[in-house]
Amino acid sequence: MDRPETPDRPNRGFMDFRDDPDGAEAVFEAQDVPGLQAMLRAVNAKGSSFMSLGCERNLNMLDPPKGDATCYLNSYLEVTYRDDERQGEQDMIDLAILLAQRSELDERNWAKLELGIEEMKHFFGEKGRYCLHIAISGYGRSKEEACKTHEHAGRRLAGVFDQLIKPAGHSSNGSSSDASKQVDDVQ
Question: Quick check: pTM over 0.90?
Answer without folding.
Answer: no
